[in-house]
Amino acid sequence: MEWVVENEAWIGIVLQAVMAVIWIAYLQVFVLGYIRQRRPLVLINRGAGVGTGAQCLVCNMGGEPIYLTSVIADLRIGDETFRAFVTDREEVDKTTLSRPSEGTNQGPIGSGEFVDIGSFDQILERALRHVGRDDEIDRVDRMDLTVLCGSGHSMLLVAGRRRFIVGWADGDRRFVPNMALTEQITRRRDRRRLREVLEKSLREEAGNLKTASDPR
User: So where does this one cross the membrane (predicted)?
Assistant: First the structure.
C-alpha cells in the first residue's frame, strides 16, 4: 500500500495511457466500420434463368446511392478482343416508351437496389453491332462486363467487373460467370484508367460530329 501511495503519480500516468490506447482502438474500429459502410460495392449478377433469356442485374450493395454512367463489354472472338459501350438499350422501340429514361441504363441506383440492364443476349448483340461483327455472334466465347458509376463523395469512378464464359448447352447459348463474386476495381490507377477510356470515347463521339453547314 505504501508503494502505491509513493508511486501514485506514475500509476495515474500509466492508467491514463492505457485508457488512451483503449479509446484509440475503439475509435479505429469505429472509423474502419464507417469507411467500410461508405465503401461502394457494385455487383453484376445473372438472374431469371441461365440461357439466352437470362437477365443481367447491376446491384448497389454500398451504403450510399451511385449513378450508373456506362456499361462496357469486352468480347473475345478467336484471338481478338473487341470493346464496346453498351449502356443504352438500343433494341427497345423508342416510340413505345412512356419515358425517355427507359431507353437507357443510365441513372441512380439506391443502396440495396438493382437495375436490369437487359438480357445477356441483348447486351452481346449490342456490342457486336457497335464493333461491326454482327455475323460473328456464334464465335464469341467470352464477354467481360464492366459497370462504371459515379459517386457523390469521390471524383473517381466506382466500378465493378465480371467475366462470363459464353458457350452452348442443350441447344441454348449460356453465359456462365467464371468467378463467384464481382471484381471490385478499387485501385486509383485502375479507376483513373477507366475514366480515361470513358473520356476517350466521348472525344471520339464528339470528333465524329458534323457542322450544320455540312450535315453529311
Answer: 12-35
Kindly report the three-state secondary structure assignment for every residue of the chain.
CHHHHHCHHHHHHHHHHHHHHHHHHHHHHHHHHHHHHHCCCEEEEEECCCCCCCEEEEEECCCCCEEEEEEEEEEEECCEEEEEECCECCCCCHHHCCCHHHHECCEEECCCCEEEEEEHHHHHHHHHHHCCCHHHHHHEEEEEEEEEEEECCEEEEEEEEEEEEEEEECCEEEEEECCCCCEEECCHHHHHHHHHHHHHHHHHHHHCCCCCCCCC
Domain boundaries, the chain: 2-33, 39-207
Q: How far apart are CA 72 and CA 82, in angstroms?
A: 10
Q: What is the pTM of this model?
A: 0.75
pLDDT per residue as tens digits for the range 181-214: 899 988 888 888 888 888 888 787 777 666 555 5
Question: Are 194 and 185 in contact, with CB atoms under 8 Å apart?
Answer: yes
Per-residue pLDDT tens over the stretch 45-82: 988 877 778 899 999 988 888 989 999 999 999 899 99
What are residue 119's DSSP bridge partners? 55
Give first-to-last CA distance, the chain, whole Å.
98
CB 164 within 8 A of CB 144: yes
C-alpha cell at 122: 441483348
Distance CA 12, CA 23 (A): 16
